[in-house]
Predict the structure.
Amino acid sequence: MIEVQHLVKRYGSKRALDDISFTVRDGEILGFLGPNGAGKSTTMNIITGYVSATSGTVTVDGHEILEEPLEAKRKLGYLPEMPPLYVDMTVEEYLSFAFDLKKVKLPKREHIEEVCGLVRIGDVRGRVIRHLSKGYRQRVGLAQALLGNPDVLILDEPTVGLDPKQIIEIRALIRELGERHTVILSSHILPEVQAVCDRVIVINKGRLVADGTPEELSHALSTDHKLTVRVEGPEAEILKALGRLKHIERAASLGEREPGCYDFNVEASSGYDIRRGVSGTIFEHGWALLGMRSSELSLEDIFLQLTEDSAEGDEA
Amino acid sequence: MGAILRRELNAYFRGAVGYVYLALFYAFTGVIYFIIVYSGLSSSMYLFAYSFYVSMYLVPLLTMRLLSEDRKLRTDQLLLTSPLRLSELVCGKFLAAFLVFALGMGITVPEAAVISAFSNFDWPVYFTSLVGILLLGGASIAVCMLFSALTENQIIAAVLGFVTMLLLSMLDQFASVFSSEAVKNALLGLSFYTRFFNLTVGVIDFSDVFFFLSVTGVFLFLTARVLEKQRWS
């Protein structure tokens, strides 16, 4: 449905996007994961024709966005990071305007009604957008993107700034929409992308660092083999005992956290679950195990890891 | 284009801008009208001679918001990602401003009708003048719209537009300063006032009409180019 090839965007000397290529298949929900400033919005703005790439091409259902912009844009519904709302209009007026603007050829009243029902804004249709809460504004923006039943929906951080209940609602809605539309959605929240998407693309600093299903991604990011344990006992001996365990690659002390208790980082060879081994050793020695958790990777760690992995992959 | 035109026309009268513009325009031209009637003149020439300045100086009010606001509020993301040509966008916005301008100028119709009831009114002169001022208005709107596309600050757009209109309206005076005939003729050729004045004497000279239409066309084109360029920077 969408083909992105060798996208480069330069702002002055800064490369916002550096050779990004991917395809989105028909009916797929694609997640776009990356920290703030990674180039997610830039990519989406290029796909929708709002900004132009320095080089590279974007094709929507066979129509190149620069060569045949009208045909390509007709297939797209876009919800930018900040919903593009005319706050002086009522919801009804705004949607009617967007309907005309997109030259939708469906029965107007019925279609707007249908879309309003879908995103549940029927009760605020007569209200001026200026007076709506953030959650409602987001939904009005989504309604605008849905007008004309476009084949592709592009949603830039659709859940940012919403409360947890609204987030759950919007996620459910996106999954529902994914049954009839091809969806690209961006986020900087890993679990969100995992919950909603069929496929995930990770970008960092303008470069594509991973592309796969959420399962593949979470496998690559599996943290079972990296533990943090808190043990009561003599620091040096514990460290020695942990280091002697099978499949352990690295063990390091993080220092005393409570009186007489030390935290240790233990890392096993990839694919080995060492939790049993670690707790067994500690009990055998008569020390007390006060806590054990998988080391949580911050988003930065994830990108670091993915970047390292992809570098290794290139060499192989 | 229709969608843009309707939305912009509504926007003028949803906020204060449309009313402020019309009020100022009616007030200024009303005073002039009063003076004309009071001094017993029946020619519409004076009416339009003053309208020339009022129109040019008030046009920035109409255009300052047109494109700058979309950029500031990011609503241009909706406009530019819709299946809409840039030319449709620019023309829709232009036409909205032009219609409000024409609505302002429309006040002269009843004014002229009242004068004609009491005196020997020269209707042909009135009509060519009206055509002239509408052409002038269109050209001024197109020029000022370019400034609205260049900045996301309405005030800057208005000030730049106003200064440009001020300079354009005084080209005649500048021309008289130069001794070189070539420079003088070049400036007079560009002068909105000279071109407009030709039309107020009751003769429609095609070159004057063409002048205003081409200024309008060129500046609308430039506006579209500015919008296009913003995508690449």
In short: The radius of gyration of chain A is 24 Å. Residues 151 and 181 of chain A are 5 Å apart (CA to CA).
